[in-house]
Amino acid sequence: MEAAKKHFFSDMGVMLGRSMRHIFRSMDTIVTVTIMPIAMMLLFVYVFGGAIQTGTDNYVNYLLPGILLIAIASGISYTAFRLFTDVQRGIFERFHTMPISRSTLLWGHVLTSLVSNAISVLVIILVALIMGFRSPAGILSWLAVAGILALFTLALTWVAAIAGLTAKTVDGASAFSYPIIFLPFISSAFVPTESMPSVVRAFAENQPVTSIVEAIRALLSGQPVGNDIWVALAWCVGILLVAYFFAMWVYKKRV
């Protein structure tokens, strides 16, 4: 059993290294994923921020959690693209002829998504600091934020794996991310839900992005988190488990 685990983790390390080399050879993927949320943050803070009433003096503090989720939702589309490319080129079949743990092929892509999105998130936070973002949060609160973002990334990455394995075209592999990117706009990420019409407000308050945004915002501002963190974790873990099992089923069936 111990030998099998060692074999699995060593194989996964090799697959992670392979995927990361693709990322670093084509840094435009991380740059593209990072620039769009930063441009959006600049636009909302310096153009629309003065007209948006959020009850806070520093709009970038209010805005940042939603921008981070948009960056992650945008970044996972590249995971679907890379998986689709591997399937179309027969890369998985070639690896399956070798004595390696088959599930590590998927895990390599998933962990690469986690690392690349973490880089994007760090860059966006640094830009937010330049724009005036300030947080009284302690180390435990920052670790909690990192944990929530990591769970959110893993959950969406396994959803991306399903798209990458089942898509018929390269456009279809990445197009699934568009509705996910749009979700933060119908949440409390940009404005309080109280300002929305009743039907829109009902949807905004009962979709996963709002609870995740509210939990991160409370942690970063040093405020009591309440039930939002448990709702956020439940959404992330629930999506992660369902997407993981379905992705593995599709993977075994397809490859």
Automatic annotation (TrEMBL):
InterPro entries: ABC2_TM, ABC2_TM_bact-type, ABC_2_transport, Nod_factor_ABC_transporter
Swiss-Prot/TrEMBL keywords: Cell membrane, Membrane, Transmembrane, Transmembrane helix, Transport
Protein name: Transport permease protein
Topology of the protein relative to the lipid bilayer: Multi-pass membrane protein
Gene Ontology cellular component list: ATP-binding cassette (ABC) transporter complex
Primary localization: membrane
Gene Ontology molecular function: ABC-type transporter activity
Subcellular location: Cell membrane; Membrane
Coiled-coil stretches noted in the UniProt entry, renumbered to this chain: none
